Each structure stands twice: as C-alpha cells, then as structure tokens.
C-alpha cells in the first residue's frame, strides 16, 4: 500500500493498493497467474473482518489462498467453493509479472 502524491485534506483518501499478483500451483501440476483488484480486497475484508493492509504484517496462507480464489471466482474461472477449490491447490505464491521493476 502506498500514498498517492496527490494527497490533500484527509489521509484516508490517499491510500492506493497496487494489484497483488499471485501464482497458483495446482496438485495436478498446472499453474495459473492472477492479479487481484479492489473487488477482491473488499471480499477479503468482509470475509476476515480485517483491513487488507494487514497483509503487510500478518501474511497467512489462508489469506493468499482466499485472494487467489476470490479473483478466480469473480472472473468465473472457478465455480467451486473456497474449501473445495483449496483442496485442488498445492501452493499460492506472490510473483512479479514479466517486465515489472519489482
């Protein structure tokens, strides 16, 4: 999370989230990459009753899996429930897309 250079008046207006890029490795050996959006962050906050900013200090495997799942579910790549989808996943990890300076 970073502050916009165009902040004025209220600091809470100035917080922006960069997409979190996640690579999902399935138990069958396949892999897919997703980029999260504001809709995924809202779903996270509603599910866990904590700010997405908590990922900066409290990264849990469940949080990464949920963000990956909600991105896939939102885009209709999976219709499985979170629990059923999790059973098909070997690992979720953050990655930097090609061409990224990160």
List the helices and strands and how they pair.
Layout: E1 2-3, E2 15-16, E3 21-26, E4 31-35, H1 38-48, H2 61-74, H3 82-86, E5 89-94
Antiparallel strand pairs: 1-2, 3-4, 3-5
Helix pairs in contact: 1-2
Descriptive overview:
- With 102 residues, this protein is of the alpha+beta class.
- It has helices at 38-48, 61-74, 82-86; strands at residues 2-3, 15-16, 21-26, 31-35, 89-94.
- A 3-stranded antiparallel β-sheet has the order 4-3-5, with helices on one face. It has a two-stranded antiparallel ribbon with strand order 1-2.
- Mean pLDDT is 84; it is low at 1-14.
Whole-Å distance between the termini?
14 Å
* Cα-atom radius of gyration: 15 Å
Helicity level:
25-40%
Shape: globular
Give the tally of structural domains: 1
Structural class: alpha+beta
Strand order of the largest sheet: 4-3-5
What's the helix count?
A: 3
Round the mean pLDDT to the nearest integer and report it. Answer: 84
Q: Which percent range describes the beta-strand content? A: 15-25%
Q: Count all strands and give the number.
A: 5
Low confidence ranges: 1-14
Strand/helix succession: EEEEHHHE
Task: Characterize the largest beta sheet: strand count, sense, and whether it forms a barrel.
Answer: 3 strands, antiparallel
Condensed summary:
The protein is of the alpha+beta class and 102 residues long. It is built from 3 helices and 5 strands, in the order ββββαααβ. Strand 3 and strand 4 form a beta hairpin.
Keyword list:
102 residues; alpha+beta; 3-stranded antiparallel beta sheet; two-stranded antiparallel sheet; 5 strands; disordered N terminus
